[in-house]
Each structure stands twice: as structure tokens, then as C-alpha cells.
Amino acid sequence: MENKKRPKVYVTRELPIDTLNAIRDRCDVDMNTNYKSMLKDELIEKLKNYDALLVVGTRIDEEICAAIKDKCKIIANYGVGYDNIEVEAATKHGIYVTNNPDRVTDATADLAWTLLLSTARRIIECDRYVRSGEKSWGPNLLIGSQVSGKTLGIIGAGRIGTAVGKRAKGFDMKIIYTSTKPNKEFENLTGGIFMDKEQLLKEADFISIHTPLLPSTFHLLGENEFKLMKKTAIVINASRGKVVDEKALVAALLNKDIAGAGLDVFEKEPYLQEGLDELNNVVLTPHIGTSTIDTRFSMAEGCALNIFAALEGKTPPNCVNPEVSIN
């Protein structure tokens, strides 16, 4: 690659520049440093000139894939979820799509637990109370929910769900889970008990969602599901916003069908369902599940390995459409 013109890589949203050093050593890198997304026409015109895309939350559809097919060899998605990319379109036009399945697990599991504990113990309310200068402290103040010894229901028994379950063992929790089928590795690592979704919703004190966004998981939790839960239940979502019917969630919180929620993802992010930000029993974070410096470096490294493989004519290690190599 040293004797050839350096490949060009475009990063669709700003990342810590030092995390891209490995890619910059071998490629010319341009990055969108504007928090505002480009208009689609602008994006298409821009992306035509690059050999590889490092995609951070940007929607890549059929029209874009068709426009970039003559030069672009790979769409390297920064995160593990790639529902922002029309994979069939990329495959049709001979472009690899990759993700980062192994590099986000611990950071996302830590964030799910941060949301769980913060919601259960009303940490945001407590912080505001202390900062306000209030001095009326006492045993009836800001009473929260016990976590240790309670039942944690995990929806989705993949890498992140398993990591969340492993952490729950330290709190002596009973772990129950639901997934498309029983997962023996999950059970061996967490002691979790498999059950159907309805039974889990009825039994769990805390419900943590760790499933990808698929047609089958869209609005997986809605009005009917919230009514099955305990009045004291707390819902945590660090997966995908559209897995939860946000309008139904707000109604359930207002009606006290459930006790609280901790959310890192939203149905129409960065926009919130009306009324959600007015509720004290909700903890909200701006999709920061992977936002640690260690994870940022690791994710960029994963993207680099995928990009380099594609530029060398090889099937990338984390390819979600390997059939491209035989077309």
C-alpha cells in the first residue's frame, strides 16, 4: 500500500482524533466535525470520493449505496447495532458492511447498571436536592428501591445481556431471562432461568433490555407489556429506542403502572416523547453506552481492522454480509 496512492476514509461524525491514529497511519482520513447531519444530497456528493466509510450513527440507504458503489469497498459501522445501514442494498452493490460486536460489551453493561442504580436510588433527584441547599434531611426523604436480593429480568441473552447478568450476581439477585431460545452459556455464567416474556414481565423487579432492533422486536414493550409488570418495576433500555413504545412508556409512568425507567436510547432520538423529560422517576442519558475512552479506542481499532482487510481485498473479520466476497 506504501507505493500506491493512499486510500481515503470518511468518518461521518466526530470521534476523538487520537482514536483514529491507526487508520491515519495508512489512509487519508476526513471527518465530519459538524454536529448537524448533512443533507442527503450533500452526503451523497461527499461520499462518492472515498474508498471506505466509518459510519457513526449515520443512515446509509439504497440511494447512498448506489452512489458510492464505484469506489467504496466497505461501510464500517462504529457500533454493534447496524440497523442504520441497509445491508441488502450494500450487498447488492458489492460493498462490505461490518460492525463491532465484541468491543462495546463491558461499557454498555456498565451503563445499564448505572441507569438501574441511579433510577432505583433516585440519584438525580438526590443530587438536585443537595445542590438546592435543602437541609431537611431525614429517614422519609427520597426513599428508593432496594436492588440487592431482588429479581432482574433480562430481555436478550447475547453478549451485553450476559455481561449485565454477570454483574447482577454481585448483588445476589435472582436472574431470569427471555430470548428467542434458551442460552446455556448465559445460564452457566449468570445462573439465569429462562422463561417466556409474559412471565418475566410479571416476576421481575427490574427489566433490562438487550435485544437488537428487528421487525420482531419493534415496540417489544408497549401498553400491554407495561400493564403486566409490577407497580414497583423499573425498566432499563440501553439497546435500541424503537424496542420500546415511548408513548406507552410515558403513559405507564404517569399512571404509575410501573415505578421508573432508565433510558440511554430513544424512539426518535435525539427527540423525546412529549412529557418524558418532565418525569422525576426517569433517568435519561444521551446514547452514551459506549462512551468511555477505552471503548472509543477499541471500537476505532475494530473499524481499522475491518477497513484494512476490505482495502486489501479480503473479507473483513466482523463482516455482516460476507456474500459480497463471492459476487
TrEMBL record:
D-isomer specific 2-hydroxyacid dehydrogenase NAD-binding domain sequence ranges: 114-289
CDD domains attached to this UniProt entry: GDH (cd05301)
Keyword vocabulary terms for this entry: Amino-acid biosynthesis, NAD, Oxidoreductase
Gene Ontology process terms (BP): amino acid biosynthetic process
InterPro entries linked: D-2-hydroxyacid_DH, D-isomer_2_OHA_DH_cat_dom, D-isomer_DH_CS, D-isomer_DH_CS1, D-isomer_DH_NAD-bd, NAD(P)-bd_dom_sf
Top-rank taxon, per record: Bacteria
Gene3D superfamilies given in the database record: NAD(P)-binding Rossmann-like Domain
Pfam families attached to this UniProt entry: 2-Hacid_dh, 2-Hacid_dh_C
Domain D-isomer specific 2-hydroxyacid dehydrogenase catalytic: from-to ranges: 11-321
One GO MF term: oxidoreductase activity, acting on the CH-OH group of donors, NAD or NADP as acceptor
Family, similarity comment: Belongs to the D-isomer specific 2-hydroxyacid dehydrogenase family.
Name of the protein in its database record: Lactate dehydrogenase-like 2-hydroxyacid dehydrogenase
Organism of this sequence: Serpentinicella alkaliphila
